[in-house]
Amino acid sequence: MVLDRRAAGLLLHPTSLPGPYGIGDVGPAAHGFVDWLTEAGLSIWQVLPLGPTSFGDSPYQCFSAFAGNPLLVSPDLLVAEGLLTQEDIAPPAFPLAVDYGWVIVWKTDLLRRAHARFAAGGFHSLADRYAAFRNRPDVAYWLDDYALFMACKDAHHGQPWNTWEPALRAFQRDAVEAARAAHAPNIEYHRFAQFLFFDQWERLRAACRERGITIIGDAPIYVAFDSADTWAHQDLFLIGRDGNPTVVAGVPPDYFSETGQLWGNPIYDWKRMARDDYAWWMARLRSTLALVDVIRLDHFRGFFGYWAVPFGAPTAETGKWVKGPGQKFFASIRKQLGDLPIIAEDLGDITEDVVEGRKKLGLPGMKVLQFAWSPVATDPVVTDPNSGFLPYQHDPNQVVYTGTHDNDTTLGWWQNTSTPAERLTMQAYLATDGSAPHWDLMRAAFGSVANTAVVPVQDLLGLGSEARMNYPGRAEGNWCWRLAEGQLNRQHAQAIRGLALLYGRAANPPEKAVPVPPKKPKY
């Protein structure tokens, strides 16, 4: 298992990297971040799902569970390939935060220009790499259906697939083949855009391998309804003959929302999937591990029991728990793929069968320190002994976080969300005055017995709620935060390296290193 030794890293999605093109990408800034991680003594880079985003720009609602996001393609690397010129990529005055509407239009135009130049010929080495990409078995499984899906969406002005003409909506063979012929040039463009993403990502991953940096990726349990996966494999989902789902996914009322979270994703027909030994899932896991080293399996709880909400319900409150495939599914994974490097995202309403299931599988779970400080009712500075998030409750086979992409930043949580009792409890437990709560939680995470510690980059920088990545249950205004050029600097690298050395998490520490108390960077 990759996570069986003490290590640490940062959570930073590539869209949040700095640069002049309105959105982070996998080009020079990403390679610079890998260099920064090395200087900081860190060996883990955690990212969010890398797929092509759809409604709400969420990486958890993608047009494909297999494809990459073309918005992450680097214009600079396209110039280096000769596919674009410096004049082509001269950017408009983008704001610092990601304005997806503006970025999508501008970057799609760039990618279509690059494809037109490639199609004109003369790129022999690139053509060989493209052919090799298309012939990869893990790519061939999904690429043509995805490219056709995107071309059909273009032809239907972005409308979801269940509004298309009946035969095409039903993925009938004659209608599908006719669409392949009618949209052949656009299908080829979407194939090529995928090649560009995977080609550039593989170069970035190779740079991580050279420096001993593990990439933790993210696999959402569900796929988007308006996706190539659902359209091309309707028999694998609980979808009616009219093309609408019969039930959709979500979670009941919880810490994040009083009415629950209505995700709206279609739910798998697990009985049908079992008949071919979960072949779609096996292909998906193989494809994901071609991109990353470790998979954070989102909503692990849903494999044992999931919240099913009737289609059309206004909130998730009317859902019910339904038994999932459980150990049978994971036994099939082990039989076909072996012991995979998986982190079980086991947050939220977790029942005993989920806890026992994770332990039986030997998968590391997650601990979030922002959740640790609820005191007992009778004393505001006595910790709740039932809180498994407290550092003394951790065990080595876990991943500890200060917070995640779904939480406020630690400073924002401290200032805006935490209760007075939580603040008192945390201050008493960590023997701190609370003047730098983000640093306090970073130190607690690095000092934990959990083998792996991951910190959102916003916490290292000491940023407030303005830097929050996502508000669960809110459809708009998420996923927009970005680093400014130079915001993450050498001082931050030295500070976090000090923590990593002090708590035995530093990658390649110098021989006979004497840990010294790390100094908090000046914000």
Protein described:
- The chain has 19 helices and twelve strands.
- By secondary structure, the protein is of the alpha/beta class.
- The strands form two sheets. It has an eight-stranded parallel sheet with strand order 9-6-3-2-1-12-11-10. Strands 5-4-7-8 form a four-stranded antiparallel sheet, with no helix packed on it.
- Helix 1 (about 30-40) links the parallel strand 1 and strand 2.
- The longest helix has 27 residues, at about 185-210.
- It starts with 6 loop residues before the first strand and ends in a 21-residue tail after the last helix.
- The model has no long low-confidence stretch (mean pLDDT about 95).
What is the strand and helix layout of this fold?
Blueprint: E1 7-11, H1 28-39, E2 44-46, H2 75-80, H3 100-119, H4 124-135, H5 137-140, H6 143-155, H7 166-169, H8 173-182, H9 184-210, E3 214-219, H10 228-232, E4 247-251, E5 261-266, H11 270-275, H12 279-289, E6 294-297, E7 305-310, E8 320-323, H13 327-337, E9 342-344, H14 352-361, E10 365-368, E11 398-401, H15 410-417, H16 420-430, H17 437-447, E12 452-456, H18 457-460, H19 490-502
Parallel strand pairs: 1-2, 1-12, 2-3, 3-6, 6-9, 10-11, 11-12
Antiparallel strand pairs: 4-5, 4-7, 7-8
